[in-house]
Every structure is written in C-alpha cells, then in structure tokens.
Amino acid sequence: MNGSSVANTSPNVKSKEDQGLNGHDEKENPFAEYMWMENEEDFNRQVEEELQEQDFLDRCFQEMLDEEDQDWFIPSRDLPPAMGQLQQQLNGLSVSDGHDSEDILSKSNLNPDAKEFIPGVKY
C-alpha cells in the first residue's frame, strides 16, 4: 500500500480548521447527549426490561441458595427437639487426661502378651 491510498481510506480525520475553539466539531449536535429523550418510551422500555431481567436473576439466585441450604445438614434445624438433649449430653462428655489409665490397666483382665487379632486367621 502506498501513502496516497492510506490517506484516501480515512475520511473521518478532520483538520484543526474543521474543529471549533472548544475542541468539538462545529457540525456536531450540541444536544447529542440528550437525544435519548426523543425516544423516551423506547428508552424507558429498555430500562424496565433490564430491571426485570436483573430481578429475575436475583430471584433465581436466591432460589438456588435456598435449595442449597436445604441440602446441608444443620442439627439445630434438622434434628427433633429430643435430639437436642442428646446433643447436650454428648457435649458434656470429655476424654480423660490419662491419670486414670494406669488404674484401668492394673485392673484389666486382658493379656498384654497376646498375639494381635487378625480377622480370618485361625490360631
């Protein structure tokens, strides 16, 4: 491509003389940003459709979250009230700290020298 064909392909380039003092084209409509008001009904319809679509997406997302919440097991919600007492009893249990384990071992009837139990093997 030579330079003359490049100059001919860009007709939108305007010289400084074509532009006004404020940097805007003299031929440009000074009310261009308000032209949407000419078709206000179409604009309102479009905005309303966008709002309805956003509302629909929000409802779908909330429904999806609600379904997901139903899939999770939450004891306070999913267990009957009697199970709450059992839960409290379980919470009250604790593991011993090892002080009583020597007493348990001295009173035990188990043989510490016995072979390890392996299921399916006969001795």
TrEMBL record:
InterPro entries recorded: PAIP2-like (IPR040396), PAM2_motif (IPR009818)
Pfam families xref list: PAM2 (PF07145)
Name of the protein this chain belongs to: PREDICTED: polyadenylate-binding
Family, as annotated: Belongs to the PAIP2 family.
Keywords associated with the record: Translation regulation, Ubl conjugation
Record GO biological process: negative regulation of translational initiation
Keyword Cytoplasm: no
Positions of region (Disordered): 1-29, 89-111
Compositionally biased intervals (Basic and acidic residues): 14-29
Domain of life from the UniProt record: Eukaryota
Coiled-coil zones: none
GO cellular component: cytoplasm
An example Gene Ontology molecular-function term: mRNA regulatory element binding translation repressor activity
Polar residues: compositionally biased ranges: 1-13
